[in-house]
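As a representative case, we now present a protein record of this kind.
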Amino acid sequence: MKRYFIFTTILFFLVASCAPKPNPEIQIKLAVAQTLAAIPTYTSYPTLRIPPVPPTATPMNLSGLFCEYQFCIGHPVSISFFDLNAKDNPQAPSSISQGKLVAYDPTLVILVIWQDAAGASDASFMLDTIIESNVDARSGDLKAFQVGDLNVDYVPITTTAPSFTNGGAAAWMCGSRAFAWKAYTPQAELATSLLNEALQKFQCNSQ
């Protein structure tokens, strides 16, 4: 019995040693293939094609136009308005409820002021504010006319401002604000042309 067991054991080891051994290269390739097959795949997100938005046309030519403080006003393209209040006191610039703009070159000065005037229907009182008594003087009758929805009061002036002798001043209401405009010009008739240019482009938030 013992001899039979020893013979069987020897025979098992002989058979095992003679059996074909697996190719390690094939085993590696098989393991790699199994690993790749086990990696989960993801559904790609759909690509959205957003059509380009065409630029919108500017409703008004911005050349010779000042827009801020919820109103716009025209001016000659050769000059630009700046905030006179901010220049005088950077801590107290103009605002929607009150302000002062000026534009000038050696041949022209234009001043625009506005203030809250809730309850008023006539802006002619603004002429007394913008016409400086120690510098300007009315040189004609007050004229009232309409430009669009604006009721405008206008008066020609003379001035002792340096380099100028003529000009004009105007006032109008827009919503709850009263506006006034003044120009110093070398020729008297130029002031009315400048005022017309300013008012033709004038718009304001009337709230």
Observations:
- Residues 65-204 form a domain with the Protein Transport Mog1p; Chain A fold (CATH 3.40.1000).
- The mean pLDDT is 81.
